[in-house]
Automatic annotation (TrEMBL), chains A, B:
NCBIfam families xrefs: hypE
Species of origin: Desulfoferula mesophila
PurM-like C-terminal domain boundaries: 163-311
Domain PurM-like N-terminal: 39-151
Name of the protein: Hydrogenase expression/formation protein HypE
GO biological process, one term: protein maturation
Family statement: Belongs to the HypE family.
Length: 337, 337
């Protein structure tokens, strides 16, 4: 199997070509003692404690972009969802749907990137599956990942736990991933560099959990962005969320592209940022914990939860107005993750 | 949302339309107390014992076929992979990739079928994800499922555990699923009825485990069929496997279609059959256990493991010859599951 070859229908048939693909490509980059069992299912040692389980399919277009690719994104996205429940992510499964004709070199680049991302996040890929569909029946490749983590005893985080008086923080600039994908796809000739923020948030989350006994909610604002994630929290918790627009960190390049194209960075996807809702008295402790982590250097306190206008989210604008932030409606950017 | 509508890119954007799809369609058919958490990840209670974890993506074409559809198949396929390690399947996650324009009525039919299949198998869908890609970027819908089960203490089943002297059994007729998909796709005007064998094997497996302390290996011969699965077992266990061709149960309609089209039923996919390898002295006990289950009525003893020709599989033909059964090579039927 050479990098110059292409994926054939054979590679998904479960016979010799499938076995070669597993042995020569997947096992090489993702292999570990659990994946190597080669049985219908992997056997994992007993896990003490409650489990957090999440699944995501990734269909991002293009599959390679500044700051990452569909492989690293598929690891980060699911690791982050598991970590947002306070769990330590331990295991991933991965399912590939490949389009006939995909260059094997592209697949290998994606799988190698998954392997690096998994090692960086400290998770093992324990089971996988590959299907191949004909030309024109999928677009290059889609990846599903499912993650399993263990939640420390006594820890309860969730989108329904915010209370009036809680502080709302974000771990850094918003909209970087969304703007990067859009710029890659449209071939915008940006003079300033911009890259996806795709990154594993489990270490940042663990630092917050250790520093803040009053932590209520962690959430990574992916599809739908900050505004949609906060709407979900406001609705599930029965609080109103008031933001200070000037406090929300936005990279100037992202702000410029958004202005140019009429996009709102508060609705754009992020893949390496988290929203942290914490008891008001612990806002500074949360901020300090995030800023001590390389992925939280630009963390900011952006608002508060209150008892008024339960279920709604709004921001106080820099010119003294108030803007209601509803859930995302419509599709600003398809295939963003 | 009415059944006459179609899937739009909006439905995958993570905003209002996504939330409606979750609330009005997925939650209605798949809902339970764990799926209803609506957080980034589901939280499961502590599970005592080792876990079996498996993932599969389903791309079957057509999505509706006699005996099932892509939804029931996605539940059965993963439940069965988990059960083949001796585990009790408990939880599933599901990830959908939908093509823009898919009729919502078709999606609902598939999701309702998943719900019925999950209830029948006794598993809960605990997490889900939906992405939508543009027209022509996928073919109708693809489904990934990942399953989690718990393995009873002390039970060790696996493809590397077969030993010389062991008996080889199958739970019923082979090739039904493969021939059904082919006939559906090609519009063969079959006069005799034939249907996919898609079914959950966890109850059948549990019966075998209870009846046979000398159980070595369970395996469901899906893609690549009986011959490929036995080759994997022979290679991993270091045994030779000798079959009696006349003992292998094949439905006459399947045999007829295979003869007509030059296909070999031993290489066709099954979705409701298992291979059982058991200590030779317990072959009759295994056969009785299978035949007492509706899914194992046509179970048969089809061969033995030996120490000769380790890693190879062959059958003694009814005319006194010997046929080597290698792994599947090439792709007889793309998108079979």
């Amino acid at each position: 199997m050479s990098r110059g070859e292409h994926i054939l229908l054979d590679h998904g048939a479960g016979g010799k070509a499938s076995a070669e693909l597993v042995a020569e490509l997947f096992a090489r980059h993702l292999g570990n003692e659990l994946l190597g069992q080669m049985d219908d299912a992997a056997v994992l040692p007993p896990l003490g404690g409650r489990l957090a389980v999440s699944t995501d399919s990734f269909v991002v277009d293009p599959i390679f972009f500044p700051g990452g690719d569909i492989g690293s994104l598929a690891v980060h996205g699911t690791v982050n969802d598991v970590a947002m429940r306070g769990a330590t992510p331990l295991y991933l499964t991965t399912g590939f749907v490949l389009e006939e004709g995909l260059p094997i070199g592209d697949l290998e680049r994606v799988v190698a990137s998954m392997g690096r991302a998994a090692r960086q996040a400290g998770v093992k890929v324990v089971a996988g599956d590959t299907k191949v569909v004909g030309r024109g029946q999928a677009d290059k490749l889609f990846i599903n990942t499912t993650g399993i983590g263990v939640i420390p005893d006594g820890l309860e985080l969730g989108a329904a736990r915010a209370r009036p008086g809680d502080a709302v923080l974000v771990s850094g600039t918003l909209g970087d991933h969304g703007v990067t994908i859009l710029a890659s796809r449209e071939g915008l000739g940006l003079t300033a560099p911009i890259a996806s923020d795709s990154a594993p948030l489990n270490h940042l989350a663990a630092g917050l959990i250790a520093a803040c006994p009053g932590l209520r909610t962690l959430r990574d604002p992916t599809r739908g962005g900050l505004a949609t994630a906060l709407n979900e929290i406001a609705a599930l918790s029965g609080v109103g969320i008031e933001l200070e627009e000037a406090a929300i960190p936005i990279d100037p390049v992202v702000a410029g592209v958004c202005e140019l194209l009429g996009l709102d960075p508060l609705y754009l996807a992020n893949e390496g940022k988290l929203i942290c809702i914490v008891e008001g008295s612990q806002a500074e402790a949360a901020l300090a914990a995030m800023r001590s982590d390389p992925l939280g250097r630009r963390a900011a306190l952006i608002g508060r939860c209150g008892g008024q206008r339960a279920g709604r989210v709004w921001s106080n604008t820099s010119v003294g107005g108030r803007r209601v932030l509803d859930m995302l409606s419509g599709e600003p950017l398809p295939r963003i993750c």
